[in-house]
Amino acid sequence: MPGQRPPKDDQLLSERDILNILGDLDLAPGSYWLVMGAALVLHGVRDVTIDVDLAASDELFRHLVETGYEPALSRGGRPKITLTDNVAAYKDWTPSSWTAIGGVQVASLESIIEEKSVLSRPKDLSDIEAIRGHRARRSSAS
What we know:
Layout: H1 15-25, E1 32-35, H2 36-43, E2 52-56, H3 58-66, E3 72-73, E4 79-84, E5 87-90, E6 98-101, E7 104-107, H4 109-119, H5 122-141
Parallel strand pairs: 2-5
Antiparallel strand pairs: 1-2, 3-4, 4-5, 6-7
């Protein structure tokens, strides 16, 4: 699968970087949803992230396995395929709701809160607070 050389682990990814990476991966439109930190960047909650997590459709995940990618289990127990040093595709993770941003299916802020509430790591709780702050700023600007 063609793709750009991934950034080093310490390089932060902006919205433009994320969209370029997704374009270079050349995945079928509608076959994945952008989730977690990269989704927060596209929503404008964060400026940057260190990686790109994708929730893959069953068809995409199967295609990746058939083309030679090796699945493994994530720390959370979901099947995961590492596409590059900073891009992973997860099976069995469909956001409860999503929106299109920049031509990409992106998990809704509500579905990100749901997932991060389950994980409840310190960084997830911090992200939940950032989402709430983002929503408050947007509603007060209206």
